[in-house]
Structure formats: C-alpha cells, structure tokens
C-alpha cells in the first residue's frame, strides 16, 4: 500500500494517463460487465472494509467515466457502496485517532490514500447523480408548463438524500485529518473536493425548499471557515454562485446569518460585502443579471442582520455614484434597514442622531436620481420609514414637497410611487386625525399672539431687572474701583488672560453682591492669569486705563441677566414679581413648542393642498395605476377632513364618465369606501349614517356632477352594493317617519331614490301612488320643489326601452286618475302666482304627463286652456307681468318638445307594436288553418299556395302600415300641431311677436324663454322652421343678452340634426360666435360646433381655421377644448390631414402674430403620425409656393415643411418639388428652415438613401446661390427662433404687393 501515491486530479481524464510516480486507472470496465464487478467489489468491502477501495478504485471510476451510458439504478448502487464505505471510514479514523501512538507511518500513508481515493469517488458520484436528478426535475417542470403528461419512469426513483451526504462530509472533516496528511493543515485540493459537493447542492433550485439541508451545508462550511481557513474561498465562491442563481439571493443571506450566529464568523460580512460590490465597478465584468442578484443579497443581509451591516454603510456609500442602478438601490436599501433596525429609538444619543440624519440626507438626495427605478425605490423607502415613524418632524415637509413635485415625473412608476408616498405621509402623519387647515391657521394665529404677548412681558421684566442692577452697581462702583486700583500695583507683574464668563462669572458676581470685593477681584485675577494678549494691551495703558478696563469687565459680569434670573428663581426670594418666574419660563417653552408644531402642521397641510391639482390630473392619466393612487389619496384626504378633499371626491365622480370598465370599478369601490363604509354598531345607525352622507354630498355637488352621482348610485343599486336597508331608510326620510328629518333632507332623499330607481325600476313602480300622494298632496302644495322631485321620480318608471314585440302595452295611468287631477290643480292654482321654482315644476309636470298619462293631450289641453283663462287675453301680452310671460313661454316650449318626443317615440313605437301583434296573430291563424286543411296532397298544395300569397300580402300590408303610420305622424306634426287652427299655433304667434319686438320685451329672461319656446316650436315643423330661421340668426347677431345667444347655439345643434338643409346655409354665422367677446358664448359655440363636426353633421372644411385659432386663446378652458377637439379629429380617418392645408391658408390671413401661428401649426402637425399622409403633405404644401409671391407666406410654408417627419420618399418629394420654391431659397428665413430640415434628416443613424437625398437637395440649394450674382449664403445659427432682419429683403417686401392666397383643400389641390 505504501507505494501507492494517489493525487486528486483537477480533471477526471488525468487518471487515465500513465504515470510512474502517481496512481492511474489501468482498466476501464465494459458497461456490460460493471454489474458483475460491482458485486465483486461489494464482497471485497464486506471482507476488507473501507480499505477495499484501493483494489477496486477502477471499478467505480469506470462507472463515473461512463455515467452517461449507464442507468441511474447502477449509479445509485455505486453511491450506496461508497456512502457505507465512507461511514465505515469515519468509524475507522475515530478508532485510530484514539491511539495515535500506535499508528505508524505506513498506516498513515495507507489511510491518506484511502481517504483521498474514497472521497474522490464518493463526491464525484454524488455530484453526477444529483446533477441528473436536477435535469430530470427541470424537464418535468417544462413538460408541465407545456401541458405534456408523459413521465420519465427513471426520474426521482434514485434521489440522493443531500442532508445525509453533508452530515457524512462534516463528520469526516471534524476528524484530525492533519495526522494522516502529515501537514499542519488539510490539503486545499482535498477541501475543494468536499466543498464542491456543497456548492453543487446550493446550485440546485430545489435546495430552496430544503431548509435543514441548507443548515447542514452552512454548518459544514462554517467549520471549514473557522478551522481550515476557507473564509476567502467561501466568499469568492458564494459571490460566483449568487451572480448566476437567483434562488440563492435569500438562501445565502440566511446561511451567512446562520454562520454568524452559530460559528461567530462576523468578519465574513465585511469580506462578502466587498466581494459583492467591487467586481461590479470593473466595466469588463458588466453583468446586469449578476448585479441584480448581488444587490438582492445585500438587501436581504441588511434585512436579516442590520446591526452587523452598520459598519459597512459608509463603505457602501461610495457605490451610490456607480452606473448600476441595481447596486445603488441595494446600497440605499441597506441604509434604510440600518435606520429602521438601529436608529429609530427614542433614546438616541447625539452621535446616533447625526448618523441617522446623514443617512436620511443621502436617501433624500437620491429622490432626484437619474434612474427612474431608483427614484421609485427611494419613494418606497420613504413610505416604509414613514409607516415606522422613522422620519424626523423636521424632514416631513421636505420629503412631502419633493414627493408632490414628482407627481408630474415623466416615468409612470415614479408617479405611482410618489403618489403613494404622499398618501402614506397623510395616513401616517404626526399631526392628528382631523387636518382642517382653516382651523389650524386660526389656532396658530392665536398661539402666536399669546407667545408674542408673553415675550413682551418677559422683555419688560428683564428691562426692570437690568435697571435695578444698574442702580445697584452705581452704589457699589466707587468701592469696587478703589479695590481694583489698590490691587493693580500688587499684581502688575503677573500675567492675565481673558475671562471665561460661562464658568466663573457667577462666582465673581456672588462675591460682589455680598460686598466681598477683595475676594471677587482675586478670583477674577486668578482666572485671568497667563494671558499674553492682556499683557500686550497693558503695556500701552496707564494704571488708570487698566483699572477702567478691569472695572468694565467686572460690570459686565455683574449685569449678566440670565444668571441673575436663575439665581432669583432658585433662591425663592420675596421679589419674584420683579423677574420672570419658573411658571413664566415653562409657559414660554410650552408656547414655543406649540407654535413650532402648529407651524409645521400648517406647512404640512399647505403642501397637501398643493398636491390636490396634480392628483386630480393623475385621475385622468393614461396609466390606470396613476388613477388608482390618486383615488387612494382622495379617500385618505376625505377621511382626514382636509379642507379641499371634497374637490377631489367630485373629480372622482367626473371620472365615472370613462368607458373603461376597470376605471369604473375603481371609482365605484372608492365611493363605496367613502360613503357606504361606517363603523356603526347597529343597522339603523349604519343606514342613517350612509343616508346623511349621501344627502350632504348631494347638497354640495354642482349640476355638472349631478349626472355622475346619478350614474354611481344607479350602478350601486344594480349591483346590490346599495342594499334594501338603505333604500328603506331613504323612504323613511321621504315620508318623514324618521324623527328630526327636515324638509330639505326629505327632498334630498327623494332625489337619491330617483337615482336609485334608474338602477332598479321597482323602487318607483311599486310606490307610484305613494310618491303622487306626497308630491301632489298637501306637502307638495306647500313645497313646490318636493312636487318637482316627485315628477322626476315618477318619470323614471317610464324610461324603459320599448320592445315592439312585447305583447303587453306600456304601463300608463288613466287620465281620470286622481293623481292627474291633483297635478293639474297644482299647475293651474299656482300659474299666476309668484311661486319660486315654479318654472322647473312646470317643465317636470309636462314631461310626467306625456310619459305616464294614457291620454296626455286631454290633460295638457285642459291645463293650457285653464292657464289662458287665468292670465286673460293673450293678445295683450305687453301688459302682462314678466313672470307670466315667462311661464307661458316655458309651458308652450315644453309642450312642443314633449309632444314631438311623444309622437316620434311613444306613438310611433306603439303603432309598430300593435301592427306586429296583428301580423303575429294573422300568421298563427294561417298556421292553424293549414293544419285543418291538410287532408290530401292537392289540398295541401292549394293551402300552401294560399298561405304564401297571404304571407306576402301580410308583409306588404305591414310595410304599408308602417309607412302610413309614419306619414300620419309627420302630417300631424307638420300641418296640424303649430297650424293657425291649433292652440299651439295660436300661441306661437305671440311667441314670435315677443321675439320680433325685443325693445318692447326687453327683459333678458323673457327674451330667453321666448327664443327657447320658438326654437322648440321650430323643431316640430319644418315649414315653421323655414319661416323663422332668419329671425333666429338675426337675434343671434343683434341681441346683447348672453343667455339668449347661448340658448340659440344649443338649439341650433338640434335644428341642424333634424333639418340640415334648412339650417346648413346659416352655419357660417355659428362660426362667427367663436370671435365673440364673451368667453361663455365662445365656449358654447366651440362645444356645439366641435360636437357637430365630430358627428359629421357639418363639414370640417372652410371655417375650421377659426376653431384652430382657439388653440392660442387667452382662456385656459378654450385652449383645452380646442386641443381635445383636434386630438379627437385626428383619430377620425383622414379628417385632420384633409383640412390641414386649408387651415394653414386661412391662418396666414387671420393670425398676425407669428409665434401664435407657429404654436398652432406645431400642435396640428404633431397630431399626424401617418407616413403616407406626411408624404402627401409635402406635395400639397410645396404646391402652395406657386399660389403666392409673398415672402412671408413662403416663409410660413417652409416652416410647415420643417414640422414634417421625413423619410426617404417624403424627402424625394421635397427634392422633386424644388422648382416650385427655388426662387424663395434666397430669402433668409426660407433658407434657414430648409437647412434645418436637412440637419434633422441627418441626425443619428440614417440610411444611405436619405443621405444621398440630403446631398442632392443641398447641391440644388447651393446652386441657386451660385447662379445668383452677388448672393451670399447666410450663416446658419444653432437655433432658428427669430425673423430675419435683412434690410434689402425688407425693402423688397415693401415693394411687392401681397397676393391673396386661395383656399386649399383636396379639390383645389
């Protein structure tokens, strides 16, 4: 045995090479013979024990060498042999090491070889089997992900128990192997052989679920680190593993923590941190994945061992300037964990506070990091710190301000986290549960007043004390002066030094107060000794001057006010009223603290108030995450009672208009959280709280938000969110069964029920009589608003979409019902009385009658005739009071529009429904007839023929019936509704008379009601519309009443939709309203026109340039409306592209300000992103050069060409059209714009074809300057922002006459 020299190979093939002085494998056994040889080896093992390996090494090596060809069962058999042999080897070593003296050198060498041979084979076979098992696991996972069910029968049948392997290795290394190796340490190659197994186990993803195995691995590695100097190799190998395997990011940090706790390997932290970070600095090792994994390990170490990471923080600080954002994030995470673990206590000393503030300042700096991921991560850290109450009060407002600033960050992830940070600072604020800015400001002003008053009192007390001390000094001064002068000569040779007032002034003062002047002077000189400065001053002074100087210093000590105050307070003298007392000072300190706290609180709330606007903008962000965070902020703001929280809630209401299902769900859940979630302990209190909240919301919202609230409540009811208990409580409010409910709340509850009924119709259909009794009974007579709300609610019951195939007629109430009598009496009784809100009730009543009454014309005719009787002769309208004229106009207009809707919708659909039922009955009758007559073939054929004829006749009859119904309704509306013989026709003449005589009826509300009534009458009949359309537009131009103009604009939209041929010639007059002085009229006109254009009701060409001018309007709302309109227009096929040249032509004439013109054109061109359209625009704008010789126009055309995104084809078109604009190249601005185009085309990486086109065009431009005598190419500035001031060109402009540029459109081009 002694002659065998086994060297652990670096590569397995090294053992196949013959060697004179080292062991090598002589025979590789054939795979077919391995089973037999394994059995032979097993027998040898039983006879010889672990020493058998020296004679059977080649057998096991053959298995390793041919592992890919052998079945797993054979490999596992070899593993079992070697595992048992290793266990027996450990027992043998223990036995031998108990009596080392009995072991000779030959025995040592023998066991040295056995250990190395056996461990080489054992570790190798373990790694081979484990690798195969891992490969099988990965393949099975992949098959599962692909849906395949085929299984490998050999997989996982022979898995190694990793834990037992590591335990065996650990037991082996714990033996005194140095004794057999004859060296002070175990060979590094042997250590590597063992550790490779453990590191291999860590590489396997399945190790993540084997906690006990991981602990055993790190116990083994920990032993090597402590006893075998494996520390540095351990750190290097761990970092290599982490860079490759993500699952180790958590395993490694847990393992290191285990080493520190169980093996006291604290120094590993520093080495590991340095190894993790330093490799990332070298660019040649750049690895984004490795950087990310290493950063995760650093973060996990900081989470699990923050105390041990504190010393490493300042070392890591230098990596915050590194390019890797993963590394920066991990360093910042480490800092945060350190702060949370060690620097958040209340008993921090000054050094710890300084360290904490320094780390927080670093974290604050990286809010402005260049990487969006770092900025977002930093805000997440601040959120966590705020939740843990780790942000000092002095930094609260600083961080909050920066978070608010980043609500407008370009990166969506930063905006989201910044918004979350603002919400977190609000939810975890230090200032209270109710944050009402107005009240805090009032409290701050009050406390400041008290503080100023107290300070004034203290100043007065100090002044009184100072005066008293001055007087006392004057009484003692002569005696003190005498003592000083008498002692100067004695001490003239002594050195002095400056006085330390803070230490000794109180002692000197005490002796002076006691009259012991000699002692006071001695102490003064003693503390002033050894001062070269005073000696130099003294040389230039006489004795009198020195005495005066000493006297001045002593006086300053005596008059030191604060020390006197403390002396007086501590001595409890009877003269406490002359100086500030302890109570004064305590009040001063408390008030100062309170004022500082309130000032910080007010600043905090002012910042939150500033956050409202950007948060509202986030509600309408393209990213749904922005909206989610903004909604969460407004929920928190509402819960904390912020002053402007309701503004955000109303904006959330507006956002319900979005058609996005996910956004709607977010809004519905948010409103549910705010209004439907309570902390009540019983159902009654819960429902009462909800009802009160909804009523308060209804009272505060504007008309703009009313429809949004309507939608939300309807959705809640439809989905069951607003349950029956709340509905029942609302009915109790309406019926006044609930105690202490006022009329206003009762009406509000009725309105909320109206909204709820739109989600579930049974809420109103089952309570029609109840609502009618309440609304039109005694309560309704006294409260006209209640009656109005009752009408609105009853109207909901008839808002269902009617189905013509429904056999049941629509639900309507007979005209002789008591409800209609009560409603009619209310209208007639109050018609000639000055009742507030009656006009609204009148409109609601007419709508209700047409919607729910079975014969509405009967009731309406009765109301109309009774009203006319009550107001007298209608021909004398000039003598009527204004309110009666308004009411009659409202009544006529409302009847006209409701009658039109009644005929077009209700009557026509009802006629179609009845016709459908008749056809259906006829078909059923024909079918039954065919069955009865189906006796013979001939009879059947005859019946079929008859039926076919009958069917064709019925279809023709149905179509004819529909046409007849439509003709009947059209004739009724056109010729009989507003005819001279009808009641409405007679009243229409008086409406027209009021409109034609604005001087007689010069009250704005009268004119507005008359024009609205006239416009509604015009909707009924085209003939009536044709007769009075000129009057309408004359009033639009001449009236001075803003509401009248707006009313005309709104109704013109309906007229244009119904009678386009009549109204279209007047559309240019509508566009003129865009130039009106009134902002409201301009807004209304723009809204109406944009709506008509987007619905293709009017053509976009011709006057659309007037709408484009609104892009630079002085009013923000107009600019926003214009921007939104053109954005939507750009989404409609080729609409914007088609009209863009036409817009340009008109803008050149109308817009004189060059900057405004450029702003409009930039915006419009920015909306076109189609390359083919861009190419066509080059042709169309180049064609404009030949329509004008004006250099200003040429300059503007060229500016438009700079706004086009050029590709090869569009640049080719620009070059081909050079002949059209070559004469303008000499114009300075035109030349500069062309150079700008060419410069933009060559930016970055461009195709060779584009470069060739640019060179070609540059040559043509240069050629123009060469052909023109005396022409010089102007210098090209870096940025073209100003007009050329070339005098010669200016003279040419004055000489040339500007030619009119014709309108450009698709047809003109």
UniProtKB/TrEMBL annotation:
Q: Report keywords, A-Z.
A: Cell cycle, Cell division, Chromosome, Coiled coil, DNA condensation, Mitosis, Nucleus
Q: Main subcellular localization, coarse class?
A: nucleus
Q: Where in the cell is the protein located?
A: Chromosome; Nucleus
InterPro entries according to UniProt: ARM-like, ARM-type_fold, CND1/NCAPD3, Cnd1_C, Condensin_cplx_su1, Condensin_cplx_su1_N
Query: Which sequence ranges form a coiled-coil region, renumbered to this chain?
Result: 437-471
Q: What are the Condensin complex subunit 1 C-terminal domain coordinates in residue numbering?
A: 1058-1201
- What Gene3D superfamilies does UniProt report for this protein, alphabetically? Leucine-rich Repeat Variant
* Region entry Disordered, spans: 1276-1309
Q: Where is the Condensin complex subunit 1 N-terminal domain?
A: 80-234
Ranges of compositional bias, category Basic residues = 1279-1299
Q: What does this protein's UniProt record list under function? A: Regulatory subunit of the condensin complex, a complex required for conversion of interphase chromatin into mitotic-like condense chromosomes. The condensin complex probably introduces positive supercoils into relaxed DNA in the presence of type I topoisomerases and converts nicked DNA into positive knotted forms in the presence of type II topoisomerases.
> What family classification does the UniProt entry report for this protein?
Belongs to the CND1 (condensin subunit 1) family.
**Protein's UniProt name:** Condensin complex subunit 1
Q: Which gene is this protein's source?
A: LOC108569627
């Amino acid at each position: 045995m002694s002659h065998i020299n086994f060297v652990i190979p670096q590569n397995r093939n090294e053992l196949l090479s013959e060697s004179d002085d080292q062991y090598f494998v002589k025979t590789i056994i054939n795979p077919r013979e391995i089973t037999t040889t394994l059995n032979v080896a097993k027998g040898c093992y039983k006879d010889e024990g672990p020493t058998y390996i020296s004679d059977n090494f080649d057998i096991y090596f053959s298995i390793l060498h041919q592992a890919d060809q052998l079945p797993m069962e054979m490999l596992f058999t070899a593993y079992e042999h070697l595992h048992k042999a290793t266990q027996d080897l450990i027992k043998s070593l223990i036995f031998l090491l108990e009596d080392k003296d009995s072991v000779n050198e030959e025995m040592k060498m023998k066991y040295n070889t056995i250990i190395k041979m056996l461990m080489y084979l054992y570790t190798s076979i373990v790694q081979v089997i484990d690798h195969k098992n891992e490969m099988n696991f990965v393949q099975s996972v992949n098959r599962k992900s692909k849906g395949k069910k085929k299984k490998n029968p050999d997989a996982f049948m022979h898995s190694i128990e990793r834990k037992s392997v590591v335990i065996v290795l650990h037991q082996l290394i714990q033996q005194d192997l140095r004794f057999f190796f004859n060296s002070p340490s175990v060979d590094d190659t042997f250590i590597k052989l063992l550790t490779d197994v453990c590191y291999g186990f860590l590489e396997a993803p399945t190790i993540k679920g084997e906690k006990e195995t991981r602990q055993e691995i790190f116990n083994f590695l920990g032993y090597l680190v402590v006893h075998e100097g494996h520390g540095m190799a351990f750190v290097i190998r761990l970092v290599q593993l982490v860079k490759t395997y993500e699952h180790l990011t958590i395993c490694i940090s847990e393992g290191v923590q285990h080493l520190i706790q169980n093996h006291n390997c604290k120094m590993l932290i520093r080495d590991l941190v340095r190894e993790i970070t330093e490799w990332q600095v070298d660019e040649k090792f750049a690895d984004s994945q490795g950087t990310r994994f290493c950063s995760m390990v650093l973060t996990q170490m900081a989470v699990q061992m923050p105390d041990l990471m504190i010393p490493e923080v300042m070392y890591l600080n230098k990596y915050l300037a590194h390019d890797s954002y993963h590394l920066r994030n991990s360093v910042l995470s480490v800092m945060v964990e350190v702060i949370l673990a060690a620097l958040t206590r209340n008993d921090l000393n000054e050094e710890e506070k300084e360290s904490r503030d320094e780390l927080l300042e670093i974290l604050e700096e990286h809010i402005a990091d260049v990487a969006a991921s770092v900025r977002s991560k930093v805000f997440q850290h601040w959120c966590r710190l705020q939740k843990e109450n780790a942000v000092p009060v002095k930094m609260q407002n600083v961080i909050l301000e920066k978070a608010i600033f980043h609500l407008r960050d370009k990166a969506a992830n930063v905006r989201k986290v910044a918004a979350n940070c603002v919400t977190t600072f609000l939810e975890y604020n230090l200032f209270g549960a109710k944050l009402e800015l107005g009240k805090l400001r009032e409290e701050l002003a009050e406390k400041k007043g008290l503080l100023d008053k107290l300070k004034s009192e203290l100043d007065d007390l100090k002044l009184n004390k100072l005066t008293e001390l001055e007087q006392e000094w004057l009484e003692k001064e002569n005696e003190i002066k005498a003592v000083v002068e008498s002692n100067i000569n004695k001490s003239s040779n002594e050195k002095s030094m400056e006085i330390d007032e803070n230490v000794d002034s109180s002692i000197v003062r005490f002796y002076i107060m006691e009259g012991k002047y000699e002692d006071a002077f001695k102490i003064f000189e003693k503390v002033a000794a050894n001062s070269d400065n005073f000696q130099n001053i003294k040389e230039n002074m006489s004795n009198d001057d020195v005495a005066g100087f000493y006297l001045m210093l002593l006086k300053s000590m005596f008059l030191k006010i604060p020390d006197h105050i403390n002396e007086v307070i501590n001595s409890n003298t009877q003269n406490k009223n002359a100086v500030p007392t302890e109570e004064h000072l305590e009040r001063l300190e408390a008030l100062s603290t309170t004022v500082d706290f309130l000032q910080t609180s007010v600043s905090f709330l002012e910042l939150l108030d500033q956050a409202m606007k950007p948060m509202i903008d986030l509600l309408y962000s393209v990213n749904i995450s922005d909206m989610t965070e903004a909604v969460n902020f407004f929920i928190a703001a509402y819960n904390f009672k912020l002053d402007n929280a309701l503004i955000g809630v109303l904006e959330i209401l507006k956002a319900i208009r979005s058609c996005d299902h996910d956004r709607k769900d977010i809004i519905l859940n948010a409103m549910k959280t705010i209004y439907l979630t309570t902390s009540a302990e019983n159902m009654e209190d819960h429902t009462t709280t909800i009802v009160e909240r909804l009523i308060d919301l209804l009272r505060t919202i504007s008309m703009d938000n009313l429809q949004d609230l309507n939608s939300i409540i309807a959705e809640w009811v439809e989905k069951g969110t607003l349950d029956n208990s709340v509905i029942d409580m609302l009915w109790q409010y309406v019926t006044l069964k609930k105690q202490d409910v006022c009329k206003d709340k009762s009406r509000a509850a009725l309105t909320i029920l109206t909204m709820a009924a739109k989600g579930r119709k049974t809420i109103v259909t089952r309570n029609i009589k109840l609502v009618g009794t309440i609304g039109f009974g005694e309560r309704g007579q006294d409260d006209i608003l209640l009656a109005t709300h009752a009408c609105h609610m009853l109207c909901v019951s008839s808002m269902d979409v009617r189905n013509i195939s429904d056999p049941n007629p629509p639900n309507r109430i007979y005209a002789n019902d008591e409800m209609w009598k009560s409603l009619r009496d209310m209208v007639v009784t109050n018609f000639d009385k000055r009742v507030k809100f009656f006009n609204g009730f009148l409109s609601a009543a007419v709508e209700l009658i047409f919607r729910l009454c079975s014969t509405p014309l009967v009731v309406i005719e009765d109301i109309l005739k009774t009203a006319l009787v009550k107001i007298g002769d209608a021909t004398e309208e000039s003598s009527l009071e204004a309110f009666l004229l308004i009411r009659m106009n409202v009544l006529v207009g409302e009847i006209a529009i409701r009658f039109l809707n009644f005929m077009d919708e209700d009557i026509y659909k009802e006629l179609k429904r009845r016709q459908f039922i008749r056809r259906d009955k006829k078909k059923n009758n024909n079918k039954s007839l065919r069955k009865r007559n189906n006796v013979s073939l001939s009879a059947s054929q005859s019946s079929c023929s008859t039926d076919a004829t009958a069917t064709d006749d019925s279809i023709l009859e149905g179509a004819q019936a529909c046409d007849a119904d439509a003709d009947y309704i059209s004739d009724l509306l056109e010729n009989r509704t507003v005819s001279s013989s009808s009641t409405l026709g007679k009243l229409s003449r008086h409406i027209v008379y009021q409109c034609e005589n604005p001087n007689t009826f010069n009250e704005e509300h009268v004119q507005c009601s008359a024009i609205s009534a006239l416009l509604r009458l015009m909707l009924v009949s085209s003939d009536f519309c044709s007769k009075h359309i000129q009057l309408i537009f004359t009033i639009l131009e001449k009236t001075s009443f803003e509401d009248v103009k707006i009313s005309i604009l709104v109704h013109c939209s309906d007229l244009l939709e119904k009678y386009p041929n009549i109204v279209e010639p007047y559309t240019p007059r509508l566009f003129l309203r865009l130039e009106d002085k009134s902002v409201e009229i301009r807004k209304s006109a723009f809204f109406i026109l944009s709506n008509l254009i987007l619905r293709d009701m009017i053509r976009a060409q011709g006057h659309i340039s007037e709408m484009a001018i609104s892009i630079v309007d002085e009013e923000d709302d107009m600019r926003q409306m214009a921007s939104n309109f053109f954005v939507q227009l750009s989404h409609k096929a080729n609409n914007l592209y088609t009209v863009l040249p036409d817009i340009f032509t008109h803008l050149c004439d109308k817009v004189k300000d060059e900057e405004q013109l450029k702003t409009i054109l930039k915006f419009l061109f920015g909306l076109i992103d189609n390359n083919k359209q861009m190419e066509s625009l080059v042709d169309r704008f180049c064609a404009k050069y030949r329509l004008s010789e004006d250099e200003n126009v040429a300059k503007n055309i060229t500016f438009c060409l700079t706004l086009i995104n050029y590709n090869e084809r569009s640049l080719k078109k620009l070059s081909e059209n050079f002949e059209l604009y070559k004469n303008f190249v000499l114009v300075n601005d035109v030349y500069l714009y062309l150079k700008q185009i060419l410069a933009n085309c060559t930016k970055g990486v461009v195709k060779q074809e584009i470069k060739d086109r640019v060179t070609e065009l540059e040559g043509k431009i240069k050629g123009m300057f060469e052909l023109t005598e005396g022409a010089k190419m102007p210098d090209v500035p870096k940025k073209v922002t100003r007009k050329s001031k070339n005098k010669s060109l200016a003279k040419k402009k004055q000489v040339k006459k500007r030619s009119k540029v014709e309108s450009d459109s698709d047809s003109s081009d």
